[in-house]
Amino acid sequence: MTLLGPSSLNIPHRKVLNRKENKKLIKKYLQGEIGWSDKSLKLMKDNIRTLLRNEQEDRCIYCRRIIKIDRRNVSEDIEHYLDKSRDYYKKWAFSPLNLTLSCRPCNFVKNTKDLGDPSMRTTNNILNGVGRFKWIHPYFDDYHANIEIKKGWLYSIKQGAPNPTASAQMISNCELDKIERIERIGEEIKERQSRITDLMLKCMAKQQHARSQKLGIWLKFEQDRNWFDY
């Protein structure tokens, strides 16, 4: 089985957040002097994006599809697992264990869902085992031990998952069960090309060279015809 992205995240962006100049900016944000979209935060956020992209292997933390590098980062969002728009989670806006990257659709669907429990509203630190999270946590839970993604973008709770309740909640709330339909065209193209490839390999094994060549030409035609579609 191909694993799409890391099982859980490390925190390479901690070093960015700990820079002296950035600590000052974070303090101003937490005191309400500047907002999340303030231009003074752009460089820090760009650095965080770069490190998280590399850590997540260019994949959304939730759906695990590739996030395209777009002209103005419109395909991705710096995702706050505990939503920063809620007053009691604002203190976690720059906590390294609360920051990931998500694709825009997943972030839109997640919206302002409260993924913590009441204990997370009062604790001073985000720690594994302190409070309960409604979805699997990108730093504390093993994604691939909990959720299986099969060809065709079919999401299911893995047998023996250590956190099946949070896995089911994330699949449902994040509408991962709808991605099969969204990716249908690309999957049909890949499946068709895979069938041609399999036939060509069987012909080659039987030394049916003329038929193998025809299948190779057909495969090249399929690839060229659908080059921009998946």
From TrEMBL:
Protein name: TIGR02646 family protein
